[in-house]
Amino acid sequence: MTVEIKVPVLPESITEATVLAWHKQEGDVVKRDESLVDLETEKVVLEVPAPVDGVIRQLLKQEGDIVGGDELLAIIDPQAAGDAAPGPSSDAAADTRPAPAPAGSSTVADDRDQALSPAVSKLVAENDLDPSKITGTGRDGRLTKGDVLNALQDKKISAAPQPTIASSPPAPLDTPAPGVRNERREPMSRIRSTIAKRLKESQNTAAMLTSFNDVNLQAVMDLRKKYKQEFEEKHGTRLGLMSFFLKASIEGLKRFPVVNAYLDGDDIVYHDYYDIGIAAASPRGLVVPIIRNAETRSFAQIESDISELGRKARDGKLSMDDLMGGTFTITNGGVFGSMLSTPILNPPQSGILGMHRIEQRPIAENGEVVIRPMMYIALTYDHRIIDGAEAVKFLVTVKESLEDPARMLLQV
Q: Strand 208-216 vs strand 54-59: parallel, antiparallel, or unpaired?
C-alpha cells in the first residue's frame, strides 16, 4: 500500500504555499522523518518530512507550483524500501564494508552530496564549490541555498585582486562593463510579495503619522559597562540595548494602552498583555518574530529570546508560531547605519518604535556642553485611534525610562 504525502494543514490566515525545493526525486530511497520538500508560505518555509521509510514513486508537484492545504504532493511506496536497499547478511556485510578512507580524506563530502537539494546541487556545480568545505545550517547539518550563496560571496571576496600603489583599483564585484544594458527579471518570492502587499495595505488604510525624540543613552551605556561581564557569566547571554528599549516601550504601553491596541471596524481592541515584535532582516526578507508576554520576561530572558529568534531568522528556522500575532513592534535601523527614519506600521498594530544609530553629539547639561551617546527615536502611529498628545507622551516615557533606567525598576 502506498502512502500519500500531502501539504500540511496551513494556519487559518494562509491559504496556499509555493513548492520551493524538492530534496528527493522519483526513485530515491527515503527514511522516515527525512526532509522531502520545502514549501514557502507567506511567512515561513515549511519542511515536509517523510512519514515512513520507502521509495518515492511519483512527484505530483514541481518546484514553483502553487499548492493548497491537504493537496497531494507525492506518493511513497514503503514496501519497495526493502527491495531498494536489501539488508546484507553478516558474511556479506563483512565483505562489503567500505575500505578505510585514506589519510587526510573524509567521507563527509559523500554524505553531504547525497543530502543536497536540486537547487543547492545546481549552485554547487555551477560555481565549482566543494560542499564538504561549507558549513550547513539546515536540518541535520544540510546545506541550504543561503549557505552556498554566503560561501560563494566569501569566495569572490577572497579571490578579488588587491590594489597596489602601481595599479589602479579593480572595478567593484559584479559591475557590468561600461555600455552594457542588460536587464534581469526575477519573480518575487511569496514572502517578499506578502511583505509588499501588507505594507501597501498599511499605507492605504491607516492614518500614519510619525513623532520623533532623541535619547541620551549615557546611563544605559554606563550600566551595561558596569555589569556586562557579570551579566554574561551569570545568565549566559550578552547584555544588549534591545532589552532596555523593550522594557522602556512596555512602560509606555502600560501608561498609554491605546498604543498597544488596534482598530477593528468601529471598535478599538485593547490588549492587556504585551506581545512585542522585533523586526529582523533575514535571507528571505523582513520578518517580525514575537516575544510573547514580554512584560513577564527579565532582561536576561529577553536577551536570550532575541538571540534565539535572530539565529532562527538567519537560518530560516522560524516557525509559524514565532511570527503570528504581536501587539507592538520595535525596529532597529541603526544596525544598518540609519540616522533617522519613519517606520511603517505592521498591520493591524497601531504603533511601531524605530531605533537608529548612536552618535556622539554635543548637548547641554547643567549649563555645560558635553559629549553624549545620542539616538533619535521615532514612533509611527495610527492617528485614527491615537492622538498626537498620547504619541508624544509615549515617546517621552520611553526617553525618560532610558535616560534613568531606575525608573523601570521603580515604575515611576
A: unpaired
